[in-house]
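Quick one - inputs below.
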Amino acid sequence: MTRLAPLAGSVAAVTIATLLVWALEPVAPNLSLGVLYVFAVLPVAVFCGIRWSLPVAIASMLAFNFFFLPPTHTFSLRDSTNWFALAAYSVTAVVVSELAASSRRRAQLAEQREREATFLAEIARELLAGAEPEGIERRVTEVLGRPRPQIESGIRALIDVASDRRRLEEEALQAETFRRADIVKTALLRAVSHDLRSPLTSITTAIGALRNDELVFTDADRRELLDTIAVDSERLARLVADLLDLSRLEAGSADPEPEVWSLDELVNDVVADLGLSERVEVAGASPFVNVDPVQVQRVLANLFENAVKFSPPGAHVHANITATRKEAIVRVVDQGPGLPEDQLERVFEPFYRGPDRAGAGLGLAIARGFAAANGGRVWAESRPGQGATFALALPVVEARVELPA
Amino acid sequence: MTDAAGQRILVVDDEPQILRALGTTLRGAGYTVDTAATAESALAAAAAHPPAGVILDLVLPDGSGTDVCRELRSWSDAPVIVLSAVGEEKEKIAALDAGADDYVMKPFSVDELLARLRAVLRRTASEAGPVIEAGGLRIDVADRLVSRDGERIKLTPHEFGLLRVLAQNPGKLLTHRMLLREVWGPSYADEAHYLHVYVSHLRAKIERDPAHPELIVTEPGAGYRFVDPATS
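Output:
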């Protein structure tokens, strides 16, 4: 369709010019009317180029000769003046058409240049703003179409700069990540070495004292030193076990072995194991959960120990079990000082210790880790002065699963 | 071992178990023991019952052992032994600069702690006089004369100043900063290389075997200590 447009345009131009000459023939000498054919050649030259304007010029002269110059309706000429005029018109038409075509080419080129310049500016802006170099490259091919070595090398340089900057940014980011990880690691190492060293110091002190024959001890002193050794050895063992659990959880290798259990049974079991039956009151529903009982009891034990630790001596701790269709929730409610809002999340960070700095600060981090490994979650709710609530939510399963026919 | 004779020792540590074990141990060695778990209670205890010596943990919940040391030094001469740990080297030096007399590293041996405690307590008991004698070395502080086995030793003013400061604090660990400040002046406090050079010159003149010094002992990373070979 578009390929036929120049042809149709050319034919139309020659026809219109011919009709115009024919219409004006009665009022003007037909020889001077030949100049009207320039109006046929000009638009064709401008819109379709010299490839079409040259044939149009020739066709115009032939039509002029055929229709208007005597002898009409032949391609021969009687008058030598007419030969001259026809030749002049032909040359004029060709020159004009060439001029028009070349100015059009220049206009097109200028347009193209402007488009490219705009495009380059746009790309430069986008690259500086951090766009993906890969996408830009694809668009360059699309916009430029044919290969343009000069422009392409310019764009390539831009893209290289952008890629370099990107790489540097990534490297800086990575370095920063490493640096932060290093700070965290150093802090952890400090905390761990302090926590390991304290019990070790009291143990070695007590042993050194007992082995020193020159020191004079009563039986009570001796028993106290032995107690110190026993208590702190246990503390060390517990700390080492906690650290192993934590590293296992952080490596994502808790490997729970799920079984279906009634949650209240797990809770009551833990309370009895910890010897806290007198202080913890368990109440509520009996939903079924499909979890690793050892790991979930570990979570519960850490929550209960925490609650007891922060409650006034003898104060009761409540364990309320509720169930929705999706989740079973144990809420462990203590009567301690509670937690300010900014600590509700921080208490779950490894080695985070409250203002009293009791313990190694691992219990809640481990509780959260094992809860997550069993598809559950642990969180804290509290208002200062009103005690704290630590909740464990686990996915509920249908009781039928546990009782096959 | 029975020379403790009920001397009062203040033990400061935030770990109750360490306090218990140390307290029992020191009582077994014949000392009277006070304990404190915080910087504030430590200073209060020291004010209420002035101790003969203090054993001080560097890390306390309400402040650093260094601060306690500095505060204590402003009104008490009781010798202080700092309980330090790996990773607390800077704090340890700061505490020594603030006036602590010595340190032991956690976990420490009981025997070593008791020996250091005896040493610092003995030092405060015997004020250094105008003439100091140690391992054949005789230092006449007033007349600025030094001799070894009766033979005169010529020292430069800085060498003599260094020896005087060390010998007047027998057994006490003196940090690089303390020595530089005492001998060369406050503006030299960070010029540790001066000190190392002068110590080696001094050792060449006063030690029997400068390669194995007996009188001026190096405490790596901390400072120097003057020791009387007869009493250590």
